[in-house]
Amino acid sequence: MDEDALEYHRTDPPGKIEISTTKPTNTQRDLSLAYSPGVAAPCLEIDEDETDAYQYTTKGNLVGVVSNGSAVLGLGDIGAQASKPVMEGKGVLFKRFADIDVFDIELELDDTDAFVEAVAAMEPTFGGINLEDIAAPECFEIEERLRERLSIPVFHDDQHGTAIITGAALLNAVEISGKDLADLEVTVAGAGAAAVATARFYVSLGVRRENITMVDIDGILTTERAEAGDLNEYNRQFASDVPEGELADAMVGADAFVGLSTGGIVSQEMVRSMAEDPIIFAMANPEPEIDYESAKAARDDTVIMATGRSDYPNQVNNVLGFPFLFRGALDVRATEINEAMKVAAAHALAELAKQDVPDAVVKAYGDQPLQFGPDYIIPKPLDTRVLFEVAPAVARAAIDSGAARVEFDVDAYVERLEARLGKSREMMRVVLNKAKSDPKRIALAEGTDETIVRAAAQMADRGVAEPVLIGDAAEIERTVADLALEFDPDVVDPGSGDYGEYVDHLYERRRRNGVTRREAETMIRDDTNYFGSVMVDRGDADAMLTGLTNHYPSALRPPLQVIGTADDADYAAGVYMLTFKNRVVFVADATVNQAPDADVLEEVTRHTADLARRFDVDPRAALLSYSDFGSVDNEGTRKPREAAQRLRDDPAVAFPVDGEMQADTAVVEEMLTGTYEFTDLEKPANVLVFPNLEAGNIGYKLLQRLGGAEAIGPMLVGMDEPVHVLQRGDEVKDIVNLAAVATVDAQGDES
Prior knowledge:
45% of the residues lie in helices and 12% in strands. With 751 residues, the chain is an alpha/beta fold. The chain has five domains: 1-152, Rossmann fold; 179-310, Rossmann fold (3-Layer(aba) Sandwich); 319-420, 3-Layer(aba) Sandwich (Rossmann fold); 431-563, 3-Layer(aba) Sandwich (Rossmann fold); 573-718, 3-Layer(aba) Sandwich (Rossmann fold), CATH 3.40.50. The protein has a six-stranded mixed β-sheet. Strands 18-17-19-16-15-20 form a six-stranded mixed β-sheet, sandwiched between helices. It has a five-stranded parallel β-sheet with strand order 13-12-11-14-21, sandwiched between helices. Helix 19 runs antiparallel to helix 20 (423-437) and helix 27 (598-614) crosses helix 28. The longest helix has 21 residues, at 157-177. The chain is globular, with a radius of gyration of 31 Å. The chain starts with a helix and ends with a helix.
């Protein structure tokens, strides 16, 4: 690990962070705007009104991570210079989890007054200050003085981060164990910055101060020790009026143990001395105060255990807190991170742990079961939903407590947060909002599949669709119960009910294609794809999803045979929406038509342009080839050329389209308008129609895997009713997204 870490850090460029530009710097004019003489304009505006710095500079998204390296986790007092890799790492976490930019500042200052003055002088630079790895008790005074002096948030993560995360865990542990916060007897091992801050925070959550017993290396913090001057002014507040004793004495009868000290100090006998169903947070690293297996094995009742380690359940990881606290605080230009904001963060984390966990998170942690209970009381750090739950809760608390300088609309704010994590979230939000405005009945042909059931629960909970699960009712009910979902599904069971009308409908559709009535009866009873297709074709459902457990052609065949293509369409096609950081393109056809002629290419272009509009994208279509506007003339290049010409000649086509052209010509503005000034495309294309299925499938996968694009789809266009065929391995979020697309399709069919 040491060698790997050294190689990781020294690989050119050394370190882990860099500064990159956010505006164009390609021309002389760009540079004139970025620096002299153009930069004078924002300088003068800020001189008139200092708050304009949030509008014209990075201040509103910039945090200073400041340390003197006097108490680096696991390393001690290694000094400012040696602490720099840690501070850079903190910057990586800020950026990775909350899209917050960071300057790490290492100060060679041990004097508290000098440290405070140095940090205070940097207030104009930053939107917030994160203090890191500063020894106690100096860290308490430094934070207090800076909070009083500065009008931007100041937060010492070593104190409050652990407090917030364990606070969230405590809320859920108390609920699971049936205990009451007000009656909870808590023993805290450790009396440093994290321990004192955690104990204080538990009081804010509802634990009574007199029920907290704190222990340091010399034993229980007693009033006698406080009077003797053995305690500092910060841990003195947790001195108990009890006889002197050791950690073992303090743990007798305790409901909860919170370890913020050193490894191996708690025995199984100590655990057995605690109250029933004890809560144990052993957070010393790398060795906990007691290891997970020993704590669990010490008793026959429920032991709820958390550690600071990632290889055990319930990891207390501060990355669940500080990025999202600052995100919410920065976005309302808060003057501080106060107690109300920290409490709001803890409650948001606790509530998130009760929700269904995304497949991507489960896979990231080795497919281990993640379901609310003793082994899952806090979310995982890689759960992207933390941003959308914690940051809004913090921002709202800042507004309610008077710490905010701007207000915001919650729904609009969540959309802005989603946009920070990628263009695909921003684009899907458009469709999700449309879907919520008028949810439709979506038939889910693979209704017994666990992933489909989970997706259905989310569709209903988020209000994007009214899911109908097709399949064995008893099996679906068992799955809902096993998953502990608060979901009362709408189930249609083809095997138990009279669906003679469905048999008649299918027989009528397929009798001229070799299907007897008896075969139609078997297909309705045994093949949910045919059942769902008939359901949609009859109007008993508005749309259909299938394909998660079937090959794409097998899943597509029943809806094509029963529902067919739209009146104005002869062909269906599969479209992917690919999103990049600041760009979105629709790629067709990637799943259906193997060797399209000009007729197919023309129709696919129309369908794909219509789909783009559903995402509020004005389509600009390019029909692709390895030829640019006739540079190569053969049968293959003539097909897209002819299709493009027909579209340009049709007055009903209300979007720019051109071709045939090479892919780079279509997407690079300098090539498109500089070399081919005659083209009908004034800007790069966002609808890319490939000349055949092979090219389309290869192209979208290369863009996704090597180009860093996020893919949504495939979305099936050209059908008479909304039908979308999932891919094997699709996750819950993919299914919910396609359900929203299907709902919007159905809304369009009604208009």
